[in-house]
Design goal:
RNA-binding; Rossmann fold; 3-stranded antiparallel sheet; Arc Repressor Mutant, subunit A; single chain; about 10% strand; mainly alpha
Length: about 475
RNA sequence: GGUCCCAUCGUCUAGUGGUUUAGGACGUCGGCCUCUCACGCCGGUAACACGGGUUCGAAUCCCGUUGGGAUCACCA
């Protein structure tokens, strides 16, 4: 059985968006699953639109997702000699010819075609002229006029194209640089790529590429065209659909594995299973279960999945991801037991790391101010005595474990005759400044005795000064 | 407009001729739990685009219609 070689070939003209990440993921997963090779190639033949900033952004996104590559990154811009060589081969074998039709002429033809029968095709003016190389000449591929070219797609099954619909597309621009279809084919041939998984939007290019493979006498790889990812309005995903860059999700507090999980499940399924760890994905991913219809990107489902991944990730691992978010909020938390205990109180109530970081601040910061709602609702003169009494009680308590605290409060309820809610809510506001927080015993335990007492005293002062 | 692709709840999907009163998840609605918010649990809502065939039998196969998407560059 042959060794699978897949690739991801982004063009560096912007950040890596979720659609691109998904095709990268499919290729990566398939290579990993089949114990094959995954190649990264930067398609920067269009010098005007490619930037190194985009290249870096793509690396950054891929690394964050945990998608690593075995070979590359290769840059097409450094391979122009190879393309020239192959173009010459095509010229020599009669599969290509020089064309001197000007862009303006072509534009006119295109306009007319669109307006009349809708068939936009190069008319073959230079096809049989046998022109030599001249200034500003482009090289066109001499495509067959009759017959059919069939694409045996592993996802979409067979797609038949009439060669009469294809035209003599340009393979070398007038400035001597290769055009996309030529460059991909040459790269895929020379890099030994035998499995091409890519977006649906490439199917119409595929017959041209197949023809190129044949003209070059190279074996045609397996193609698999995955359906597009659509926006809420069912049109192709774009900026106006909101945050689409992978790193934007990182910054919003998503876990890379959650994003991975969501992206794969959008278009691929494994029975009824919704939650997958990265290891499970590598173990279970296949091409057969990729669907044939386009899918709408659903932020709510991603969010729910992120919450699931947060719950499933061990606190010590979550800590690494959370620390940067705390730092942004001025909290210099360190990995360790304390942070982990903080996380344990928050992981079931946070859908994102950002949310978790917000919820964790009060554990670290002592001089917080009270939320208006908290002060108004729970810091009434009537609670003063209770709070004072409770402070005394807690001062005498040495064991601040959740379990022991519960019994302490039980007896406190008995002696005061108060409802638990009447105690817990003011206490919560005193300790956190807010009306919502993790369970009160959890908060007490994590905060510890000293901080609890001082925050209680501060609250008492606050109420008296009102 | 030409070419190509697609079509199950609002969304992602399971389903590959009978085991289906079409299953799961997200969302949504109601309830339980409860110290707040969550989590969790229980329950409800909601789909085979339409029309013809084929067949004893069709969400599953075929054809057409409609609808949606992609693509038509000296971009990738």
């Amino acid at each position: 059985m042959k060794k699978i070689v897949t690739r991801f070939p982004p063009s560096p003209s912007g950040y890596l968006h979720v659609g691109g990440a998904r095709t990268a993921l499919f290729n990566w997963l398939y290579a990993r699953r089949m114990k094959g090779t995954f190649v990264l190639r930067i398609e920067d033949t269009d010098v005007r639109r490619s930037t190194t900033a985009s290249v870096d952004a793509i690396f950054e996104a891929l690394e964050w997702l945990g998608i690593d590559w075995d070979e590359g990154p290769f840059y097409q811009s450094k391979r122009f000699d190879i393309y020239k060589e192959y173009i010459q081969k095509l010229l020599d074998s009669g599969h290509a010819y020089y064309c001197t039709c000007s862009p303006e002429q072509l534009e006119v033809m295109r306009k007319t075609a669109m307006a009349t029968d809708g068939k936009v095709k190069y008319d073959g003016t230079c096809r049989e002229k046998g022109l030599g190389k001249t200034e500003n000449a482009v090289v066109r591929f001499k495509a067959p006029l009759t017959g059919t070219t069939v694409l045996h797609d592993v996802i979409k099954k067979n797609i038949v194209f009439q060669n009469s619909e294809l035209d003599d597309f340009i393979i070398q621009r007038s400035d001597g640089t290769p055009t996309y279809n030529l460059a991909v084919v040459v790269d895929d041939i020379t890099m030994g790529i035998n499995t091409v998984i890519r977006g649906d939007d490439h199917v119409s290019n595929t017959p041209k590429q197949i023809l190129l493979y044949k003209a070059l006498g190279s074996p045609v790889p397996d193609f698999g065209h995955v359906p597009m990812v659509l926006g809420k309005d069912r049109s192709r995903l774009s900026k106006r659909h909101g945050a689409m860059s992978v790193t934007a999700y990182r910054d919003m507090g998503y876990l890379p594995d959650a994003v991975l999980n969501y992206l794969v499940r959008l278009g691929w399924s494994f029975g009824d299973q919704e939650f997958f760890t990265k290891a499970e994905l590598i173990e279970k991913f296949n091409l057969e279960n990729i669907g044939r219809s386009a899918g709408v990107f659903d932020k709510d489902k991603l969010l729910a999945l992120n919450a699931d991944h947060i719950k499933a990730t061990p606190p010590d691992q979550l800590a690494k991801h959370l620390i940067p978010f705390l730092k942004e909020r001025g909290v210099n938390a360190e990995e360790g037991e304390f942070l982990e205990s903080v996380i344990k109180t928050l992981n079931k109530r946070s859908k994102t790391l950002l949310e978790m970081a917000e919820g964790a601040i009060f554990y670290y910061v002592d001089d917080f101010s009270y939320e208006e709602k908290a002060a108004k609702l729970f810091f009434k003169p009537g609670v003063l005595d209770m709070l004072k009494l409770l402070t005394e009680q807690l001062e005498q308590t040495e064991d601040f474990s959740e379990k022991n605290l519960e019994t302490v409060f039980e007896s406190f309820i008995e002696t005061t005759g108060l409802k638990f809610g009447k105690i817990a809510q003011p206490l919560r506001s005193a300790l956190t400044g807010k009306t919502v927080s993790p369970g009160i015993f959890e908060v007490l335990e994590v905060l510890g005795k000293d901080r609890t007492i001082s925050r209680l005293n501060k609250a008492v002062q606050f109420i008296m000064s009102k």
